[in-house]
Design goal:
The complex is a heterodimer of chains A (about 300) and B (about 425). The N and C termini of chain A lie close together (about 10 Å). By secondary structure, chain A is an all-alpha fold. Chain A is about 70% helix and about 0% strand. The longest helix of chain A is centred in the first third of the chain and has 32 residues, at about 80-110. Chain B is about 45% helix and about 15% strand. A 5-stranded mixed sheet of chain B has the order 2-1-3-13-6. A 4-stranded mixed sheet of chain B has the order 8-11-7-12. In chain B, helix 15 (about 400-415) runs antiparallel to helix 16. The radius of gyration of chain B is 25 Å and the shape is globular. Chain B starts with a helix and ends with a helix. In chain B, about 45% of the residues are buried. Classes of the chains: A mainly alpha (about 300), B alpha/beta (about 425).
Amino acid sequence: MSAVGELSQILSRGRNRGPREKHPDNRAGLVFMAPWLLGLLGITILPMLASLYLSFTDYSMLAAPEWVGLENFQRMWGDTRLHNSLIVTFTYVLVGTPLQLIAALLLAVLLNQGMKGLSFYRSVFYLPSLLGGSVAISILWRQMFGANGLVNQFLGALGFTGMPGWVSNPDTALWTIILLHVWTFGSPMIIFLAGLRQIPQMYYEAASVDGASKVSQFFRITIPLLTPIIFFNLVLQVINAFQTFTQAFVVSGGTGGPSDSTMFYTLYLYQKGFGQFDMGYASAMAWLLLVIVAIFTAINFFVSKFWVHYDD
Amino acid sequence: MYTRRSALALGLAVPGLAGLAACGPNASGGSSSGGEEGSADSGSLRLAWWGNPTRNENTENVVAAYGDVAPDVTISLEPGEWSGYWDKLATQTAGGDFPDIVQMDEKYLAEYGQRGALLDLAGAGLDTSEFAEGSVEVGELPEVGLAAINAGLNSFCFLINPEVFDEAGVDIPDDTTWTWDDLIDTAVQISESTPDGTYGMTQMSTVQGLFQVYVRQAGQDQYKDGAAGFDAATATEWFEWGKRIQESGAGPDASTSVEDASQSMDQSLFATGKVAMTVAWSNQVVAHDGLVPEGVTVLRPPSMTGSASDAQLWYKASMYWAVSANSANPEAAVAFVDFLVNSPEAGKILSVERGVPGNLSVREAIVPDLDEANTKAVDFLNAIESELGPAPEITPQGGGEFESILTRAGEDMLFGNVTPEEAGQRLLDELGAALS
C-alpha cells in the first residue's frame, strides 16, 4: 500500500496497536519537536482558546469583551442571513466536492495511460490548483463570467446573444464559483495518480484474459482498489471546501452578492467580525463551523466502513 | 519552588525595578525628559486615508510641505482604498495599532468615537474659529466632544453626460423644477432614442445618498433619535420608484446594474458613455469630469413638488480628520491636523478634492485659482445654499451597515425575489437589528 493509503488507513482506524514502552525517554523527541510544538501552541491552540472565550462575549474590538454567556449562539437561531450562508456553503460543498473528485479521478485515469509527455500534462493539469485559491484567478474569473466577458463573447459567437452576466445574476453566481472549485482538481488528481500506480497490473491482465471490457475493469478493479484514496481525498476536500473564502470574497467584491447568493459562511463570519465590529458573534460562528466540519468528517468516517475496502 | 502568587509578584516586581532604575540619579536625562521613554520618536506619526490616485498624490505633497513647517516630525503614510480601508482599520484597532491620524467617514464616526477610539480635538486645542457656521458641529459627539474635524463639505448631486443627451436629441432638464417622474420620463426618452445597451440613467435605488434625499423630501430622514427615521410606506415607495427605473427601460436590467456597481469608476457605464445620468457626492465631480470627454454637467436631485426649494439637500462633511485617543504623540498629531484644515498653504495643495474646505479663509484663498472641474463642484454648493434643508443626524452606531442593507434589499427586489413592499419592510427590520 502507498504511503497515502497507509495514512488514510491510520486515519480511519486511529488506534495504535503497537506495544507500549514502559519507560519512554521522550526528552530528545520533545526537543526535536519543539519548533513545531511551539508553533502549534502559539499560533493554533492559544488563538483557538481565545476565540472560544470570545464566543461567549460581546466584543467590539474597541472595548474590552463583555461576558454574555450563550447569547451569541442563541442569536444564530434567528439570523436568517446565517441560515442562508449555510445553505450556500452546503450547496458548494455537496455539489462542488463530488464533481471535483470525479474530474480529478477521470483525468488521473487518463494520465495513467502511459502517454508521451506525461509529466508535462500532469503539470498543466496541476497548475489550476496552485492558482485556484489566488486573488488573481478570482479576478480573472469575475471578468470571464461578466456580462461582456469571454464566456458571453464565446456564446455570442455561437448565436446566443444578450446573455446576462453570470457573476452578477443571483441564479448563476454561485455556480460560477463552484465551477472554479471543480477546475482546481489538481491536488486530488496527483494523489489519485499515485494511488493508480499502486494497483498491480496483473489484475487487469487477468481480467482482460477473461474478456472483461475496459469499462467493467474500471468499475470492478480500479474503483474498489482505489477506495481508500477516494476516501482520503473526500475527507480532505470536504474540509477544505467548508473553509472557502478567497474565491467568494473576490468574485463578489467582498459583498457576497448579488442578493447574498455567494454569501459563504466564512465570508459572513468575516463581515460580522471585521465589518460590523461583532467579533464575539464571529468567534461563535467560527466554533459552529468547527463543529459542522467535525460532524461531517465523523459521518464520512462512519459511512466509510460500508464502501472503503482495504486489502487486508 | 514557585507558587502562583510568588510568580505573580515576580512578574510585577521586574518592570517596577526597571522603572525605578530609569528614574534613579544615574539614569541619563531621566529628570529632564520627565520619564518619557518615547521622547526619542515623539516626532513620528502615522497617517491613514482612503482615496484615489489624485488624492494620494496631493496628500503626499501636503505631508512633504509640512516637512518645512515642522522638520522634526516624520509622517509615515498609509493610503488605502475605500473598500478595504474599514476592514483594515478595524483590524488595526483590535491589535492596538490604530494610526495616529485617520481620515474618518460620517458613517463610522459614532462607531469609533463612542467606543473611545478618538481624541477630543477641541479639548486638545484645535482652532476652529474660522470655520463656517454648522461645519464644526457635524464632527461632535455627545460623549467625546469634537471627535473629528471636517475635511471638506459636499452635497449630493446628479451628474449628466451631455454627449449622450446630444446623441439622443433630448434637452437637459431644468433642475430647479424637475420631479422624480420627470427624471424617469427623460431617462426613458434617452434609452429609446439611443442604440441598445445605452440607458438614460443608472439604477439609483441602491444608492444611499439619494435614498436619504428622497426620505427627507417625504418629511422624514434616514435617522431620528438614533433609530431609523423613515417608515415602511416611504421605503416601499422608494423601491417602487426603483422598480420603475428598471421596468420602464429608463435604466439597465438588474444584472447589468449589479455589475456596474462593482466596476471601478473608469469602467462604469457612466464613464464609458453608456448612460446619460448618474448620482454622486459633489467632491466626486472632479474625478468623473476627467472621465467624460465633454465633461459633466452637475444638476440638483429632483424634488417631489417640482421646486428646488423643497429638495431638502444638506451640506455633508465629505470626510473628516480624526486623531487616535491612544496616540503616543497627540500634540504632534493635532498640530498636523491644524495644518491640514487651517493653513491656506495646505488648502492650496489639497484643493477641493476632499470637498470644499469648511474653513472660510482657506476657502477664500483657494477658490479663485480652481480649474474648471473643481469650479463646477464649488458652484453647485454655492447654488444650493439658500435651498438647504435641516442638517441630518450623525449616523448612529451600527449605521455603517445601512448601505449594504439597502443594496441587498434593492437587488433582491430588482431580481424579482421580493416585492417593493417586502424590500421596504426588510430595510427597516435589518436596519433596526444593525442599530440595536
